[in-house]
Model the fold of this input.
Amino acid sequence: MTEKTQNSTEKIAEEPGSESKLKSIARETKGLINDLKDWVDLRVKLLQIEVEERIEAAASKIISLLLVAVLGVFAGLMFLIAIAEALSLWLGHPSFGYIIVGVVMAGLAFLLNRSRPRFGRGEEQKSIQTEPVAQLSEVAGKENETPKQIDPNQMNHA
Done:
């Protein structure tokens, strides 16, 4: 059998134009491999660009929120100063308004600290974790009930 394989290989090599066919197949294969490499490189570059765009969008959003927060803090401070000034004029002493506003703000800070509100995802996480517990509690509460008896005559036979 090896003689037949060798003979057929020799015949292909002896045929006119067979070498050019092999060269063209090799050239086309190299071209396909190069095209595949280029395609993979372009896909990687596209992925990098998409990631950069997402990062830029997130950074832009964060910067916008920080700017709004800073402006909001300054607006709140100006409003509190205005309230303190108005109370000072109304009470007739220059520091009473500031003292009252300070005491109210300290009281609000104390109440917020005591209540320990959860902002953001913490609250969602808590409700997700307690739902199964609540369901189990309901099932455990029904555990003491006697099961209902099913009458086979009342079942609908289809």
Observations:
- The first helix runs from residue 2 to 14.
- Residues 110 and 116 are 10 Å apart (CA to CA).
- The mean pLDDT is 79.
